[in-house]
Write a structure and sequence with these properties.
The complex is a heterodimer of chains A (414) and B (146). By secondary structure, chain A is α/β, with parallel strands linked by helices. Chain A has twelve helices and 13 strands. In chain A, strand 5, helix 6 and strand 6 form a beta-alpha-beta unit. Chain B is an alpha+beta fold and 146 residues long. Chain B has five helices and three strands, in the order H-E-E-E-H-H-H-H. In chain B, a hairpin with a 4-residue loop joins strand 1 and strand 2. In chain B, helix 1 crosses helix 2, helix 2 crosses helix 5 and helix 4 packs across helix 5. Classes of the chains: A alpha/beta (414), B alpha+beta (146). At the A-B interface, helix 8, helix 10 and helix 12 of A face strand 1, strand 2, strand 3 and helix 2 of B.
Chain lengths: 414, 146
């Protein structure tokens, strides 16, 4: 098999064990091999209609469009290439809101969306749009009744993430989309974390706009796409002007090699998704079984309605950043404030009703195509070791062991 | 985030982790911070008859910089009188550990832990000592700078 598994040293000797596939993934070697000729020999501009260089590039771009569509069951004419899911989200939200501003100025989303959605909507708010940000249940799912009640006659667009990037929770986009369709509300779905992980059939799903990314599923960074439905036709205003590429929706010379990589990555995902998912889910359950042997370990997110690649865990009485600092041979990410520039802990976990301290104690493990059982066992041993060490120096753990109820303490800092 | 060598050293080899019995005659206990803010420090000092801190212990829930700040403070307060201990400033701590601006609040918390431990000791041994109420920073307070 042509993958990077063979390149890896045993866990603990060499590069850290990578369990951060939700952040990004390595480019699959099969993808890389397809990309390389388009950087050297086949370097034409796909927009060049007058010579063979251009024709070859255009052919590759159109094949990639079909490959992307093969994973999501869409028409190639519904794909607009972008620089990634962040741009796709910006284009979808601002593009649809601007085009339809005469119809209404109300937009709906969830508190657990990616910042690319929340910040785009905040920007629209400054332009005079009204944005409703809905709460989610403790499971991370939105209550469909709450969603439906938020749709008003002047609602133009609703945006909901398919698979959450921190918890892997899968929203019921079929049901939510049907509510939008019945009211003529445009339904945008951020599927950056969903493509290649959960089945997506756009002939069945009432989704109007959908954001896609290549680097989350073993393609290169810097390339993504926006799905724009043709039937019924969804109209958006371009946000990038100059040349009228991509049927006027997104100008700019197409990066052929990136697009070829995205196409191949999506094609591979279509072929390997079922087998990958079964294997990865078993590894994820092995990880959870190992970690949950410790006391006061809490799973974040719906236990079933969750993509198999994700495990978000709070290790109570241990602060997340100090845990990450200890597991030097693991590459994972933390919902703790201290890891980021902001000092607020994960807004996603807070929106799910998790206390600040549980949010501060959270770690996201995300598994992928090249994760092995040996790596999972190594991760369990490392995390267990560090959690025990840090709890031994945690005053909170001390008090809990002595039977003190932490909520009964008047903490000074508030 | 890159940590300084000193922070890593204190994180990996924390000095004086543990606890004294808070009821002991010569012990002062200070606990500062809050779980919701992501850091709680408990600093304990053992003071001898001459009014000198002869030993210190800490336990900290918090990031590596918070652990390092409290570990460092247990080393620094030893052999000092209470007033000398109170002279330790957060800027001394952040400088020694080369804390980045986003971690200054860890050093502020450590300074507050000293104040709280000294205040606790003095409240139980009121020999004309001024009562010192520690100033607790809010979450991520950076009102005092290095």
């Amino acid at each position: 098999m042509t993958d990077s598994r063979a390149d890896k040293a045993p866990p603990g000797q060499g590069q850290p064990v990578y369990l951060d596939y939700a952040a990004t993934t390595p480019v699959d070697r099969r993808v890389l091999n397809r990309m390389l000729p388009y950087l050297t020999n086949l370097y034409g501009n796909p927009a060049s209609r007058s010579h063979a260089y251009g024709w070859a590039a255009e052919e590759a771009v159109e094949l990639a469009r079909e490959q992307v569509c093969s994973l999501i069951n869409a028409d190639p004419r519904e794909i607009v290439w972008t620089s990634g899911a962040t741009e796709s989200n910006n284009l979808a939200l601002k593009g649809a809101a601007h085009f339809h501003k005469g119809r209404g100025r109300h937009l709906v989303t969830l508190a657990t969306e990616h910042k690319a959605v929340l910040d785009s909507l905040r920007d629209l708010e400054r332009e005079g749009y009204e944005v409703t940000v809905l709460p989610v249940l403790d499971s991370g799912l939105v209550d469909p009744a709450v969603f439906e009640a938020a749709l008003r006659p002047d609602t133009v667009l609703a945006s909901v993430m398919f698979v959450n990037n921190e918890t892997g929770v899968i929203q019921d986009v079929a049901a939510l989309g049907a509510m939008c369709r019945a009211r003529g509300v445009i339904f945008h779905v951020d599927a950056a974390q969903a493509a290649g992980k959960v089945p997506i059939d756009l002939e069945q799903l009432p989704i109007d706009l959908m954001s896609l990314s290549a680097h989350k599923i073993y393609g290169p960074k810097g390339i993504g796409a926006l799905y724009v439905r043709r039937k019924p036709r969804i109209r958006i205003d371009a946000q990038m002007h100059g040349g009228g590429h991509e049927r006027g929706m997104r100008s700019g010379t197409l990066p052929t090699h990136q697009i070829v990589g995205m196409g191949e990555a999506f094609w591979l995902a279509r072929e390997t998704m079922a087998a990958d998912n079964a294997r990865i889910e078993a590894l994820r359950e092995r990880l959870w079984a190992g970690l949950s042997k410790m006391d006061s370990v809490v799973l974040n997110g719906h236990p079933q309605q969750r993509a198999p690649q994700y495990l978000n865990v709070s290790f109570n009485y241990v602060e997340g950043e100090s845990l990450l600092m200890g597991v030097k041979n693991l590459a994972v990410s933390s919902g703790s404030a201290c890891t980021s520039a902001s000092l607020e802990p994960s807004y996603v976990l807070r929106a799910m009703g998790r206390s600040d301290e549980l949010a501060h104690s959270s770690v996201r493990f995300s598994l992928g195509r090249f994760t092995t059982e040996a790596e999972i066992d190594f991760a369990i041993a490392q995390v267990t070791d560090v959690v025990e060490r840090l709890r031994a120096m945690s005053p909170l753990w001390d008090m809990v062991q002595a039977g003190v109820d932490l909520s009964s303490i008047q903490w000074a800092a508030h | 985030m890159a940590y300084s060598d000193k922070v890593i050293d204190h994180y990996e080899n924390p000095r004086n982790v543990g606890a004294f019995s808070a009821e002991d005659e010569g012990v002062g206990t200070g606990m500062v911070g809050a779980p919701a803010c992501g850091d709680v420090m408990r600093l304990q000092i053992r003071v001898n008859a001459a009014g000198v801190i002869e030993d210190a212990r800490f336990k900290t829930y918090g990031c590596g910089s918070a652990i390092a700040s409290s570990s460092l403070v247990t080393e620094w307060v030893r052999g000092r009188t209470l007033d000398e201990a109170l002279a330790i400033k957060n800027s001394d701590i952040s400088e020694e550990l080369a804390l980045p601006p986003v971690k200054i609040h860890c050093s502020i918390l450590a300074e507050d832990a000293i104040k709280a431990a000294v205040a606790d000791f003095r409240s139980r041994h009121p020999v004309g000592a001024a009562t010192l109420v520690s100033e607790q920073p809010a979450c991520a307070s950076s009102t005092r700078t290095a």
